[in-house]
Amino acid sequence: MKVYDTEAIRNVAFVGHGDSGKTSLVSALLYAAGATEKLGSVPEGTAPTDFDPEEVERKVSMAVAVAWADWKDRKLNLVDAPGYTNFIGEAAAALRAADSALIVVHALDGIGVQTEKMWEDSEKQSKPVLFAINQLDRDRADFDQLVSVLQERFGRQVMPISFPVMEGGQLVGVVDLVSGKARRPKGDGKDVEEFDPPGDLADRIAAAREQLVDMVAESDEELMEAYLEAGELTAEQLEKGLRTAIASRAIFPVFATAATAMVGIHSLLDGLAGYAPSPADMPPVVAKTPDGEEKELPADPAGPLVLQVFKTYIDPFAGRITLFRVFSGTLKADQSAWNVRSETQEKMAGLSAPKGKGGDKVSEVKAGDIAFVTKLKDTRTGDTLVGDKSQVVELPPIPFPQPVIAYAVHGEGKGDDEKIANALQRLAEEDPTIRLERDPRSHELMLAGLGIDHVRTVMDKMARRFNVKGNLQKPKIPYLETITKPAKAMYRHKKQTGGAGQFAEVHLRIEPLPRGEGFQYDSEIFGGAISRNFWPSIEKGIRQVMEQGVIAGYPMVDVKAVIFDGKEHPVDSKDIAFQIAGREVFKKCVMEAGPVVLEPIMKVVVTVPDECMGDILGDLNRRRGKVQGSDSQGGRATIRALVPMAEMLEYSATLKSLTSDRGSYTMELDHYEKVPHEIQQKLMEAWKPHESED
User: Mean pLDDT over all residues of the chain?
Assistant: First the structure.
């Protein structure tokens, strides 16, 4: 296939709330551009970017997928991201791969929880934003009202670039405010025809176009001077100014679409090809050298090769499929690249431009483009690969959300536990929001994810792909332990068994650290009271205790430990003796340092119909929630609260009941704080039997 220059590439992430029609919109764009022979359908399971069996069966996007199309000599890389809370981690990968975000908004439901989150994430990353109001062929859809809601929430820079044309109460086409043309689908919608909109729209079209021109002129001093002088902008000035304004986030254009009816699709294609920024329009990405120095990497095909993996698929037949974006340089087919994390050389075989499940072979990929290769040995999502291992840089990690809930997983038959662990480990390569670990108390395999639906989907994938079934047990709350005040203690370990003995004496001081600081270890020993080679042994013993916990069996965090005195024996002192002494003196210190249990506090955003707001607020208060604020737009209320994770485990069912299944919510870790005294006592009581077994 053709190799595209950086300036001709458009990487667009399709993000937004679930059910807004992102995947249908991508399917329509691919069909209209001639990239697919038939119009893909989510209900029929034929959408190009929903190809995983679980997605086809559930009719819900669960993973980021990419499909490319050529439109007016521009390569459009359409990056389709899930919109449901349990799979929202994939949107982080989509935004990393893209240069702009197209936020798709449901014409009836309006702004949802993920609409706002995607806006915030795009804003944090300074990504240009475009909007598509989709499903405008639905009854009661009101484009103008929804544009007003978007402007109220996201600013006056939200500006329609096309709007719907209705005839007899039915959506028939759209008016493109840049070209001034009205277009409607022709035949099956792959082509369009121009038509004259109803005469009563003339004033509205003129007013909307004037507003758009005013906003474009306002974004640039030279354009403003030209506009004031001539009273109008030329077509060339308007298009160039619009592209610059979008790239600088001075304008957030709104497109009118109805994907399944193929309305507004060609105008959106024109908009993405003509006005969405290319990689060359974006600021350089900032990588770091091994010495920690920052290095800017513009999207230059002649620069050093630097690419980042944003998605990994594990295919039962093709093996590992690795999607990546080239941020600098040019990658050629079968070229070798150096993985910075694993420090291994990888052969980039099967270089292809992705088109959903498949792809088109390509000889090279230039800076800014997206591609995939197959069968990499030791590369996973988030890894940076470079062309020259003597010029190593590393791109920032993709900001995936952390898992918020964990379940114990058990096999159904004898010997299944090991098979389950291996299968889940492979799936974790595909999904960085999965975490696997062993419970230090029960030694159970714990599967952590973004929610119960996320975890259940992982289990379904495991059964389908690897023919291994397992059972989920009650979720475990990831409590932590810490201390609240300084303390010091001494412990002497002495053991004589007839032969060589064991001796170690350690004096230790501990003090609390600010939340999130982890663990610090230091020594104030002078004069050789404890030989330097035993200091790591003491630290090892302390870390063992921190992993297991002291009062309730949970990992301990945010503690500084300082050894300040001690004694050793010329014959009996050895590594194991100081490990034991370090372990025991640390326990003694902790018990004198005001130990507490910390619980995870979740940032919860709930969106419900206005009439349900009172019930939701009352329920959150009963869950020990602290409401941070609320607002209402378009008949729907958004409530922001901080709620302990322990109180949110069964929230989905409650929300469904209180809102008749009309509510939605997101939940992510915000911080840890001390649990109430009565809960800490229960956790400590539950730990006592385990403690006595150790």
Answer: 92
- State whether 329 and 274 are in the same domain: no
Q: Decide if 143 contacts 136 (C-beta within 8 A).
A: yes
How do 319-328 and 405-411 pair as beta strands?
A: unpaired
Q: Which of 129-143, 284-298, 332-346, 665-679 has the lowest mean pLDDT?
A: 665-679
CATH number at residue 581: 3.30.230.10
Counting the structural domains of the chain, the total is: 5
Angle at 238 between CA 232 and CA 239, to 5 degrees: 160
Residue from 185, 208, 209 nearest 195 by CA = 185
User: From CA 30, how far away is CA 596, in angstroms rounded?
Assistant: 56
Bridge-based pairing state of the strands 129-134 and 158-160: unpaired
Burial of 187 (0-12, 13-18, 19+ CB in 10 A): exposed
3-state secondary structure of 381: coil
AA letter at 102? L
Q: How far apart are CA 303 and CA 379, in angstroms?
A: 23
The per-residue b/e assignment along 79-114, b for 16 or more CB within 10 angstroms, e otherwise, is: bbbbbbbbbbbbbbbbbbbbbbbbbbbbbebbbbbb
Rg (CA), the chain: 29
At 135, list the tokens.
């499903």
Measured CA distances, 166 to 48, 135, 184 (Å) = 30, 14, 11
Pair of tokens at residue 133: 């109001």
Name the nearest CA neighbour of 257 among 192, 187, 205, 335: 192
Looking at the structure, do residues 40 and 184 belong to the same domain, yes or no? yes
DSSP 67-109: EEEEETTEEEEEEE---SGGGTHHHHHHHHH-SEEEEEEETTT
Compute the distance between CA of residue 327 and CA of residue 602 in angstroms, rounded to an integer. Answer: 34
Write out pLDDT tens, residues 440-453: 656 789 898 888 88
CB 650: neighbour CB atoms within 10 A? 10
Statement to judge: residues 169 and 36 lie in one domain: yes
- Which residues does residue 644 pair with via DSSP β-bridges, in sequence order? 601
- Cα end-to-end span (Å), the chain: 64
Q: What is the CATH number of the domain that holds 381?
A: 2.40.30.10
Query: Tokens standing for 195?
Result: 């038509």
Select from 588, 592, 554 the least CA-distant residue to 683: 554
In three-state form (DSSP H/G/I as H, E/B as E, the rest C), the secondary structure along 303-341 is CCCEEEEEEEEEECCCEEEEEEEEEECEEECCCEEEECC
> Which whole number is the average pLDDT over 381-403?
93
- Whole domain around residue 202: which residue ranges? 6-281
My answer on whether 486 and 515 are in the same domain is yes
Q: What is the CATH number of the domain that holds 618?
A: 3.30.70.240
- The reply to whether 359 and 462 lie within a common domain is no
Least confident of 219-228, 256-265, 280-289: 219-228
Write down the pLDDT at residue 689: 57
